[in-house]
């Protein structure tokens, strides 16, 4: 049986979509089947989902229920401070940091204070269960991607089987570590929105930043086929360009554009790259590849991403955004019309997250034939 890798991309609140997809995949697999993923690689909010799932590798069904329960009852105040005083203080600190620079090493420069997220993750993630799952072979490895602010490298911190060694490529390294809360907070530290986290030698921020090859960690960890759950939202549809002149872009819209570039573009590019490599490898006879000692190999790939625009869905739930943050983004009306891009990342609200979970579930159930074909070896083993 080929080792199966699961890749969960980043995207803030958009990662609720991944929970729905994982729930549907569980429904598609044979009853009594535990963790179908040997390797889990996550970035940003995808790393949080990945670590939570890895900690329940011995009881995959319970892990899915645990994730769904958490995301279905989210509210923004569980992720970051939403009170006017907290947001105002963060804005003043951010503005002062940009204009004057941090005066003390302890000063944080970010739009939002995400200390509530740290408290939540400390309560709901069972970090100690990860090594136990690896030891009893329910899990081969799990990785969390971060971005080193001093080195400029994409660092995949991994915990896995003893046979896995560190790796280094251009601007990409893999480093063995016992994964902790700091790794999750660093991986999800969206630059300028959430504060970076110091780990060992430097400060780290969101793993999607400068992540040129999002699928690379899973391949280095030994994945032979890969399931990617993206959060792009109708990424392959033509852009909706109208003849009506646009107004000058708001700060919220520009921030949303930058977040899309960080979280979505690299994954889409990496998927296209792997598909091209697969086509090339398939044209070269296996005997020739063996004779020439070619390292390239065909990697089975299944990508599941939203069938609807998550920006549009976020716009429909804009009233669930805390008032103080809506004002910080330029007012409620402006946020709904042109700031839904950034809202789709920051709207950790019950209604929005539940809508994304349902969308993920529906999308995956509609692709049941592809999912069952991808996991066909699991069905064969179950017989």
From TrEMBL:
<feature type="domain" description="PNPLA">
    <location>
        <begin position="6"/>
        <end position="219"/>
    </location>
</feature>
<feature type="active site" description="Nucleophile">
    <location>
        <position position="44"/>
    </location>
</feature>
<keyword id="KW-0443">Lipid metabolism</keyword>
<dbReference type="InterPro" id="IPR016035">
    <property type="entry name" value="Acyl_Trfase/lysoPLipase"/>
</dbReference>
<dbReference type="InterPro" id="IPR050301">
    <property type="entry name" value="NTE"/>
</dbReference>
<feature type="short sequence motif" description="DGA/G">
    <location>
        <begin position="206"/>
        <end position="208"/>
    </location>
</feature>
<keyword id="KW-0442">Lipid degradation</keyword>
<keyword id="KW-0378">Hydrolase</keyword>
<dbReference type="GO" id="GO:0016042">
    <property type="term" value="P:lipid catabolic process"/>
</dbReference>
<feature type="active site" description="Proton acceptor">
    <location>
        <position position="206"/>
    </location>
</feature>
<dbReference type="InterPro" id="IPR002641">
    <property type="entry name" value="PNPLA_dom"/>
</dbReference>
<protein>
    <submittedName>
        <fullName>Patatin</fullName>
    </submittedName>
</protein>
<dbReference type="Pfam" id="PF01734">
    <property type="entry name" value="Patatin"/>
</dbReference>
<dbReference type="GO" id="GO:0016787">
    <property type="term" value="F:hydrolase activity"/>
</dbReference>
<feature type="short sequence motif" description="GXSXG">
    <location>
        <begin position="42"/>
        <end position="46"/>
    </location>
</feature>
């Amino acid at each position: 049986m080929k080792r199966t890798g699961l890749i969960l991309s980043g995207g803030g609140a958009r990662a609720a979509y991944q929970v729905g997809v994982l729930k549907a995949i569980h429904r598609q697999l044979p009853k009594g089947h535990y963790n179908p993923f040997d390797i889990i690689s996550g970035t940003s909010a995808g790393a949080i989902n990945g670590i939570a799932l890895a900690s329940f590798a011995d009881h995959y069904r319970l892990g899915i229920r645990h994730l769904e329960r958490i995301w279905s009852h989210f509210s923004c105040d569980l992720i970051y401070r939403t009170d006017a005083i907290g947001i105002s203080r963060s804005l003043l600190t951010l503005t002062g940091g940009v204009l004057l620079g941090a005066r003390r090493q302890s000063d944080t420069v970010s739009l939002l204070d995400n200390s509530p997220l740290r408290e939540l993750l400390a309560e709901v993630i069972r970090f100690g269960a990860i090594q136990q799952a690896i030891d009893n072979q329910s899990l081969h490895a799990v990785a969390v991607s971060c971005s080193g602010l001093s080195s400029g490298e994409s660092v995949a911190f991994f915990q896995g089987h003893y046979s896995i060694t560190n790796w280094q490529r251009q601007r990409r390294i893999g480093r063995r570590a016992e994964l902790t809360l700091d790794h999750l907070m660093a991986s999800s530290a969206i630059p300028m929105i959430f504060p970076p986290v110091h780990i060992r030698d430097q400060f780290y921020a969101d793993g999607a930043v400068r992540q040129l090859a999002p699928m690379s960690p899973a391949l280095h960890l030994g994945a032979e086929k890969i399931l990617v759950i993206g959060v792009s939202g109708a990424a392959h549809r033509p852009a909706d360009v109208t003849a009506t002149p646009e107004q000058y872009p708001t700060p919220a819209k520009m921030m949303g554009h930058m977040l899309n570039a960080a979280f979505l573009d690299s994954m889409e590019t990496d998927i296209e790259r792997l598909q091209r490599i697969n086509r090339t490898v398939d044209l070269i006879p296996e005997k020739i590849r063996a004779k020439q000692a070619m390292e390239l190999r065909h990697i089975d790939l299944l990508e599941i991403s939203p069938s609807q625009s998550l920006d549009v869905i976020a716009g429909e739930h804009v009233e669930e955004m805390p008032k103080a943050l809506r004002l910080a983004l330029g007012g409620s009306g402006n946020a709904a019309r042109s700031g839904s891009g950034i809202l789709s990342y920051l709207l950790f609200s019950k209604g929005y997250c539940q809508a994304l979970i349902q969308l993920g579930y529906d999308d995956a159930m509609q692709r049941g034939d592809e999912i069952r074909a991808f996991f066909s070896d699991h069905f064969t083993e179950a017989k």
